[in-house]
Amino acid sequence: MIKLSKSFVGNAEIKEVTKVLKKGFLGMGTKTHHFESILSRYFNKHVACVANGTAAIQLALQAHDIKKGDEVIVSTLTFVATFQAISALGAKPVPCDIDNEDLTITSNFIEKKITKKTKAIIPVHFGGHVGKLSEIYQIAKKYNLIVIEDAAHAFGSVYKKKLIGSFGDTVCFSFDGIKNLTSGEGGCIVSKDKQFINRIKAIRKLSLVERKNHIHNFDVFEQGWRYHMSDIMAAVGIAQFRRFDNMKKKRQELAKKYDLYLSNNSKIKVYKRNYDQIVPHIYLIKLKQADKANSIRKELLKKKIETGLHYFPSHLYTFYKSNKNILKNAESIYKYHITLPLHPSLTFKNIENISQKLLNILNK
Length: 364
Description:
By secondary structure, this protein is of the alpha/beta class. The chain has helices spanning 11-23, 30-43, 53-63, 81-87, 107-111, 133-143, 194-203, 231-242, 244-262, 293-302, 328-333, 348-363, and strands spanning 46-50, 71-75, 92-96, 118-122, 146-150, 158-159, 162-163, 170-174, 187-191, 208-210, 218-220, 268-270, 283-287, 337-340.
């Protein structure tokens, strides 16, 4: 079976984790702090590592004082975790439609959603593609809104010659097991504001703050969470980072191979991506006929090829559904999508075989 996604780990990760196990301390310690320092140098920003990408967004929202009743505009074409991070604080996720050509939110959709309660915008860097990020920051400045980038798919991607995470307000990454860089689980928040990151570092460990000359060494001043990263997770992340350049290059080259084999078929659309600039987390195609998607997935599975669907629009889940939210582009386009396998374990021959089998099915 050719897996849709797969963790890409080996002896380097095993070696780093073994060091932690032998040391006998598995919680958040020196390895986590070392991983944070590596990432801080990479982005040239302050970094806090946390339990996962969802926690990263939730803590970023809380540290920006997003609270119950506030509204956060967010792309609906995202994993539901982005919505969950907002609603976990009692805030309201306001779903935003997407551009049909690049699958990200754009300024014309965002402005229609802004109200007096709007406090932040969360653009989702879909599949590693950043979209029209400059426009989003311009709108945020115009209406005095916070931008929290959901860059779960975009570790290593570049926008206008700048590394994602090296600029902007607040950027959140996921280190889930199948992401561009993994720590098994985990994530991080990146910001130029040291005090902001220090607040997150407190909130991630139950908001316990050290107090000197006090009968008890610690106090709590706000709601906290047990969202810190462990040294085992950090050990995996450190090993991954050392070989990230090779993994990045492999993902880019595999996506380019898909483009080569699939771009000229009239029955599918290949999304235009600059794979010299972005590190693709997923690779999806758009069919010309939505009613063929399920049968094609089944045929590919018979040929031992897993496929996926990225994503079912989050505003259509029962918990978030409202008759007021009609997002025509997102509600239509997801039905045409098929996500094909993409991870560094694949070979160029795998990509050729997957593409050929897909094309054979389409020709039938």
